[in-house]
Design a protein that fits this description.
The protein has 259 residues and is of the alpha/beta class. The protein has one domain. The chain contains eight helices and five strands, in the order H-H-H-H-E-E-E-H-E-H-E-H-H. Strands 1-2-3-4-5 form a five-stranded mixed beta sheet. Helix 6 links the parallel strand 4 and strand 5. Helix 3 packs across helix 7. The chain is globular and about 95 Å long. It starts with a helix and ends in a 48-residue tail after the last helix.
Length: 259
């Protein structure tokens, strides 16, 4: 509905497909804004974000109603973020990806800071989509904590994040983080919502994300307490076990074979 209201869907509906990132953005965040921030959005962000230390910024937010704090696709001359959430002490920009990658990029690669650089030296600006969006957040955030979050399928997240971090093209005043849709789905599925009205909204979002293919493989009926984290190393092994039934009566002069 939000994507339609904001004009992201043509009147004929010709650009409305299951792969629409704008429609996914509007359906998920447009629905979540009806639920108090502290109940659903806050725990999802705080428990799924990477790097983990960025979660401290989220934990400090204490807000219930946040309908006036969220904006969808706000215009800026440098680009268009999918979502901007702004509170008294922090501004959060969110870029949503589903089936597509970065919309613009270049070969800018800034080197490590060293003593040879003069004090007025400035890193080269990049047209990379995330780099431009970090500039937007820096301009809008003034003296607030500034956070830019990429939300994408796990096969995209770590590579896109690692690329821009290695190239040092994100504004230095902005913290960059990411959340995989798979972790997002897992976290919202683990929430216990007592209010039946809010619970109905959450159930609809879960079904939508499941339909999009974000229900993550968990295990093979093995006792593994958490979902498989793509950033960690897992090693599966087996323990051979030999068991004998010692209740059998062994009779002399007979042949026995153990297998």
């Amino acid at each position: 509905m939000i994507a339609d209201i904001k004009g992201k869907i043509s009147r004929s509906g010709s650009n409305l497909t299951e792969n629409s990132e704008d429609n996914l953005t509007g359906n998920v965040f447009g629905a979540l804004r009806y639920i108090p921030f502290n109940k659903v959005m806050k725990p999802i962000l705080a428990n799924t974000i990477f790097p983990r230390e960025v979660a401290d910024c989220i934990e400090k937010i204490d807000v219930e109603y946040w309908g006036d704090n969220i904006k969808f696709w706000p215009y800026h001359e440098k680009g268009e973020l999918d979502v901007i959430i702004e509170f008294e002490e922090i501004i959060i920009g969110i870029e949503v990806k589903y089936r597509s990658g970065i919309s613009s990029d270049d070969n800018v690669y800034n080197q490590e800071e060293d003593e040879e650089k003069s004090e007025d030296f400035e890193d080269e600006k990049s047209i990379n989509q995330l780099a431009r969006e970090s500039e937007i957040i820096n301009e809008l955030g003034a003296k607030k904590v500034k956070l830019l979050i990429l939300i994408a399928p796990e096969q995209l997240c770590s590579s896109l994040y690692g690329d821009v971090i290695n190239r040092k093209i994100i504004n230095k005043e902005v913290k960059l983080a990411y959340i995989t849709w798979q972790r997002f789905f897992h976290e919202i599925s683990c929430l216990s919502i007592e209010d039946k009205y809010n619970g109905l909204i959450v159930e609809d979002i879960k079904e939508l994300l499941k339909r999009k293919g974000f229900e993550q493989f968990k295990d093979m009926n093995i006792d593994i307490p958490t979902v498989i984290d793509p950033l960690k190393h897992f090693y599966f092994d087996y323990i051979p076990m030999i068991q004998f039934d010692f209740n059998i009566n062994i009779e002399g002069e007979l042949y026995y074979e153990f297998k």
